[in-house]
Each structure stands twice: as structure tokens, then as C-alpha cells.
Amino acid sequence: MALTLKKILKLPFFYGASVVAGENGLDSTIESVNVMVKLPHQESASPDIATWLCRGQLLFTTEHVILSNHRVLSAFIHQMSEAGCAGMIIKASHHISPLPKTMLSASSTLQMPIAVLPNEKGLGDMMSQVMSILLNEKQVELERTFEIHRKFSKLFLNGATMSDIAQTLTSVVHHPILITNSKRTMVGWSASARSWAVSEEFREELLQFIVNQSPTENSLSYYKTTSGERLGVYPIHSSGNLKGYIIVMHTDETLKTLLMPLEQAAQVIALESVKQAALMEGSNRLREEFFSELLDNGYTSVQEIMKRGEKYGLQSKGTYWVAVCQVDSSLDGRISFPFNSRDYEYLQEQIQAYLDAKHMNAITTVKGDHIVIILTSNDLSVSQQEGRLIQLLQSALSHLRKSNDNHLFSIGLSNHADQLDRLARAYQEAVLALKHAHDSRSSTSVHAYRVQQVPDLIRMLPYHKLREFCSSILKSIAFPKSDENIELLQTLDVYLQQNCNVKETARVLFLHRNTVFYRLNKCESLLQLSFKDPVDLLKLQMAVMIHHILKSHEIQAEHTLS
């Protein structure tokens, strides 16, 4: 329990003491003592005591010092209040003279308690009494600290769960305890906190609160739920990175005096988190390798992607977007601050937690110097979804900036993809969106990809639809196997590129014009189309362009597999 002036005046040694002013401040905590044998700069209108008095200090002095400096006593009391002193005890004779009214008035106004002790005890004896009590309390607190440290160290060495740590902390602070990890997921709770831990409504409200916090190390913040529950939130840090939160239920002002057990528990939880992260490193590496390969177009079928990706949260149905977040360069071309892999993982966890709080179906991963976000949606039209996603990503960036002071971020957003095997293309679109925005020095922070050319528009269509269209127009020469069909497709391609000019086609192919005429006539007969019909020509141009896109896609897939 904290030592106060009210408790001191009840001691036998201080029998006969009376409080003459500032009674409302008697419960101020005393942390140390000091003695004043004369007032500094006693003739000054504003004595400077800030350099030798500190917060929680109890000041001892004599009646003579006070009465000989009555002109500056009011300013003296004000400076004691500003310094956060706990009060003053005046050693007086048996027949004390009245204290200055200005001093008493200032004391009452500022709630700075003044007690007068008219007995024969010396100042040294008074200070020794208080110092003895303070040292005893410090000794008890130190022993308690060692005991708490021993308990938590034993838990860590025995491989205790987060719930074991929460239960032990509850026995120390006498409040129900919940523990979350860096992803804001509940990972442990004491028995008395189970009702909150299993409450979906409470977890959602708690997530909304802590995801918008800017946690400060070794600080306690308070929150009141909609149901009136008052709770304390204490962040857990390790090497400067957030590892989670300790949630203390049914809190009151006395919790401020229990920071030491929270600090001890936070250290053990941080160490346990590091240990669990090391154990998870192998599986995390496999996860990162899968998404890296997926975004590099390493998988050619949806079935193969789902077989490996379902356990990581990928869904077989829906509309997909890929967003890429990066740390922006400053005007001089340098990154706003140096990043390592742990920093990127921390940012990834922040983004994931924020999107989870917004009920977004999102998967985040780190790829190089990018944080990649795969978003899935099953409702609204594509245009409505894109507008909603841009707003959501803008608010996510605002949250990132708030949590990471003076750091600049931007996001590139792809077009939608209707199949999982199109995610690699969507990733490239998101990267291009960032590149185009930086090249044009765009001032916005979220950049949506916009089609630059006709092939980009074609690539937005489903793969099987493109293949069907190509086969229906080009028929047997769409995917030629024989030398003859290969020659026919090549001649048709060059003919269309040369604006249907036979002479130029013959020159490019090093053929006689009659050979070109022969091949073109054979194409018309085989495809049942006329090169003189503008509509047929447009169909042919589109089909040949799609053929090249599909061929490029297949070559890239074969190269990746090899």
C-alpha cells in the first residue's frame, strides 16, 4: 500500500500533529523526503525550488524558516504544487505563531497539505521515521518483485501456455486477464475471463479498439465497452516490435500501482512469442514460398493451387484482387527509414489485423520489398467492389501512418481476377500500377491499375473463353501441329500486320507473291471467312492476338515447371 501523509500523522511519533491547510491532499503518495533549513533566494519574489524538490516528496522544515520568509510563501506553495510534492510538515514550538493567511489559502486551493507538529522531536528523527517506513515498503516491494519474477520465470522454463500465464497474473493483480498475439487473436485467458474470451461480440469490440491504438511501450490505456465494462490494455513489446496485448478486466485507478506485474508478465509473453515464432518459422517459410511461387505464375491449374493453398485461406470461388503495399522513397530517393525482414513482417501483421477488423476476406504475405494482399469478395458488382476496396485500402494506409510515425506508404491495386490462376497476372498489374503512379508522380496513395493496351483488356477475360474464341475463328490452325498449318498461321499473322498488303507480306516472309496468294486463299477456304469483309478481318485480328497471348502464357508455364 502507498505511504501517505494521512498514514504518517497516525503514527505515535507524530502524536499531536495537526493539519492546518490542504486537507484534501492528504492521500498523495510519498516517495521520498527532504528538509529545508532556509528558503532559497529568500528575498526573491519567486523562489526557485524546482531543482531540488521532486514528485512525491515530503518536505520537513521549521517554524522559523516559514515565518522569516512570509512574503514569498504563496509562490513557494505554488512551486511545490507544480513539482508534485506530497506535502509539508513544520516543526514548531509548543506555542506556534499563526501561519501567514496567503500561505494557508494557497495550500487549500492547491490541495497541498501542511501539518504542524509542536513537540520536542528533531527534524532528523522525523525524517528517520518516514525513511524507515519508505525503505521497509521498498524492501517488501522488491521481495514481491522477485517472487513474481520467479513465478513467471518458472512458467517460461516449464513451457507454460498463455492461459497459464494469464491465470498466474490474475492471482497477482486480482483481475481477470486476457492475452492476444500480434495478430490481435485471443491466445490465452484466466478462468475468470473465460466468458469474455468466448464472446464473439466482446472480441469484435476489443479488436476494433486495439487495432486503432498506437501502442506505447510500458504504458497502460483504458477502454470502456458498450456494456459498461472498464478494461486496461497493456502492450507487449520485444525488440521494439509489438507482440500482443494484456487485457485486464474490471479495472480501476489502483491498476496503475500494479504495472510491475504487468511488465513481468509482458516480458515472459514476449519471450514465449519469440520461442513460438522460431517453432513456426519452418511452416511460415513454406507458406511464403507457396505464395511467392503462386504470384510468379508457378502453378498452371486451379486444382493444384487449391490443393496447396486452401490451408492458407484461399477460396475456390469468388472475385479476386491483388494489392501491393510498399514503403515509398522520400524526395531525395532514399527510403524513409531502413527496413529488414522483421519490419516487413510486423507491417504485414498490422495490415492483416486491420483488414480482419473490417471483416475483409484478406490474405497477406511478404514478397521481396512488397507486402502483398490477396482480397476475395463474393458480393456487389465489380465496379462497386473496386470503389469499396480503394476506400478500405486508403483507410488502412492512414492507420499504418498513424502507427508508424513519419513513414510513407503507397498501394497498387490490380484489376479483378475471376480465377485463382490469374492471381499472378493480377500481381503484375498491382506492381505496374505502383510503377505508373510513381512515374507520373501521382499524389494519391492508392493506385488502381488501368488497361494500357488492347492485350491488357484481353487478358482480363477467362482463359477458357479466350481459347474457345481462338479455336472457333482459326479452327485447325489455332494451335497448329503440322508444318503446313504453322506456315498458314504465320502467313496470316504477317498479312494482318502488314495491313493486308500482299507485296509487303511476301517481302517480310521472303516468298513469291503467288505463294502468299495461295496460302491466303487456302486460309479463306479453311476458315470460311473473307479477307475483304471488315468484320471478318476484325475477328481474325482478335483471334491471332489471342493466339499469341495464349502461347506466351503456355511458354511461361512450361518454363516455370522446368
From TrEMBL:
InterPro entries: CdaR-like_regulators, CdaR_GGDEF, PucR_C-HTH_dom, PucR_C-HTH_sf, PucR_dom. Residues 8-133 form the Purine catabolism PurC-like domain. Residues 302-435 form the CdaR GGDEF-like domain. Residues 488-545 form the PucR C-terminal helix-turn-helix domain. Coiled coil: none annotated. Belongs to the CdaR family. This is Helix-turn-helix domain-containing protein. It comes from Paenibacillus urinalis.
